[in-house]
Design brief:
alpha+beta; 2,3-Dihydroxybiphenyl 1,2-Dioxygenase, domain 1; eight-stranded mixed sheet; dioxygenase; Glyas_Fos-R_dOase_dom; Ring-cleaving dioxygenase; dioxygenase activity
């Protein structure tokens, strides 16, 4: 049993067309799957990633038109980072963000790496983190048809920041699935405790969680611009089933085995209320679509295919077919 790092992050949007435009045209990620939220098929589920949507590169969004904005606070996934290959790449992104009117900071150092903090159009708190001195979990491969040159392109998910009122219980949940403490860094807010940096597997940016204690905050309210859950990588279904036994023994209520078709899942909430997922590395996103046309059509897993007509009738039109 070996949790290997971050698998994906799932966030919220109220504007699927605008979300698609920003993440593909500005950030240069590839939409590798346009499908639906399997628990609410009236909502799109959009998956962005590297050229194939390899595990550890996927940033996904549930689309709920009209949803209100997230209210920042505790018991939340408060920071999402995306890896780029080098410090030189960060300099490229400064110019690109200025060109596209993206709200961003200068290059700064955080948790031992050079980063740029920025926001998407709905206020999601993001950062680009340089892999210049990174080791551990390898990054992905940028799509060769991205508007961003490959040498500067996003290669996967970096450290995830969790903001909680009671860090010890969150740390215990992370330790249960294999995380160990790497180090601690000074708090971002005066009077608060240091941020605890946790890592798993081979370590590095793709396997790091930063736990930020914040006793001064009320509980967050999830909306557009917020993050719904974070998923961690496991090898296969057999390992996933073993983790169910571990969670049950620890007294953590969980979903049990969930078939997502593109991967298999197990969900549970750590004691501060943040939703964690364990997800298998396969089968992958080219299971039902050719690599060349990933994300261009609405893909449905076999168990939803007989509902396609009614599902499509309840979705807003969203054109993702490439025209070039």
């Amino acid at each position: 049993m070996n949790v290997k790092g971050i698998h994906h992050l799932s966030a919220m949007t109220g504007d699927a067309p605008g979300n698609f435009k920003f993440y593909t045209e500005v950030l240069g990620m590839r939409l590798i799957k346009k499908t639906v939220n399997q628990d609410d098929t009236s909502a799109y589920h959009l998956f962005y990633g590297d050229e194939r949507g390899n595990p550890g590169t996927e940033l996904t969004f549930f689309d709920f038109p009209g949803i209100g904005p997230t209210r920042a606070g505790a018991s939340s996934i408060s920071g999402t980072s995306l890896r780029v290959p080098s410090d030189t790449a960060l300099k490229y992104w400064l110019d690109r963000f200025t060109e596209h009117g993206v709200k961003h900071t200068a290059i700064t150092e955080f948790a031992g790496r050079n980063v740029i903090f920025f926001e998407d159009p709905e206020g999601q708190q993001l950062s680009l983190v340089s892999d210049e001195t990174n080791s551990g979990v390898k990054g992905g491969i940028p799509w060769d048809q991205s508007p961003v040159p490959a040498e500067f392109g996003i290669i996967g998910l970096g450290p995830v920041k969790l903001t909680v009122r009671k860090p010890d219980s969150t740390l215990a949940a992370l330790k249960l699935i294999g995380f160990t403490e790497k180090n601690r860094i000074p708090a971002l807010v005066k009077g608060q405790e240091d941020i605890i940096v946790m890592q798993v597997g081979a370590g590095g940016s793709g396997a790091e969680v930063q736990v930020e204690p914040r006793s001064d905050l009320s509980v967050a309210a999830l909306g557009k611009g917020g993050v719904h859950h974070v998923a961690f990588r496991v090898d296969d279904k057999e390992e996933l089933l073993s983790w169910i036994e571990v969670l049950n023994k620890a007294g953590l209520r969980n979903s049990g085995f969930v078939e997502r078709y593109y991967f298999r899942s197990l969900y549970f909430r750590e004691p501060n209320g943040i939703l964690f997922e364990l997800a298998t590395d396969g089968p992958g996103f080219d299971t039902d679509e050719p690599f060349e046309t990933l994300g261009e059509s609405l893909a449905l897993p076999p168990f939803l295919e007989d509902q396609r007509q009614s599902i499509e009738a309840n979705l807003r039109p969203l054109s993702t077919k490439r025209t070039v």
